[in-house]
Amino acid sequence: MERKIIGQTTLLIFLVFFMLLAPASAELLKVEQEIYGMDCAPCAYGMEKSLKKMDGVKKVKVSLNKGTAIIDLKPGNEVTIEQIKEIVRRNGFTPKETRILEGKPLNASMK
């Protein structure tokens, strides 16, 4: 009996560990990315242009006053939050909080 309890506990630990390491299973459709360090209109314009070049991006609106980028994505895109943050870093800024404004779960058949 004791061996069975240890086996169940081990299985539970494994499942929790796996879930923490598993990639997110949602398709991003609209994201708000906070960007630290933009202090002029050309900075915001350059950031907007760079984000628009990503595959799967439909529309980008960068607000210099708010220090944010709202990114609308096409259905079926494979954009990740880390890719968005990397574009921000490449432009010389610091990505802060990211908020998913719209998304949908992926079916196993979609990936």
Can you tell me about this structure?
The structure is a single chain. The chain is α+β, with helices and mostly antiparallel strands. It has a single domain (25-110), classed as Alpha-Beta Plaits, CATH 3.30.70. It is 38% helix and 32% strand. The protein is built from 3 helices and 4 strands. It has helices at 2-21, 41-52, 81-90, and strands spanning 26-36, 57-63, 68-73, 94-105. The protein has a 4-stranded antiparallel sheet. It is elongated. The N and C termini lie far apart (40 Å).
Task: Please write out the topology.
Elements lengths: L1 H20 L4 E11 L4 H12 L4 E7 L4 E6 L7 H10 L3 E12 L6
Antiparallel strand pairs: 1-3, 1-4, 2-3
List its traits.
Alpha-Beta Plaits, 32% strand, 111 residues, alpha+beta, 4-stranded antiparallel beta sheet
Structural class: alpha+beta
List unreliable stretches of 5+ residues: none
Strand content: 25-35%
Specify the helix fraction band. Answer: 25-40%
CATH topology: Alpha-Beta Plaits
Mean pLDDT across residues: 84
Q: What is the tally of helical segments?
A: 3
In short:
The protein has three helices and four strands.
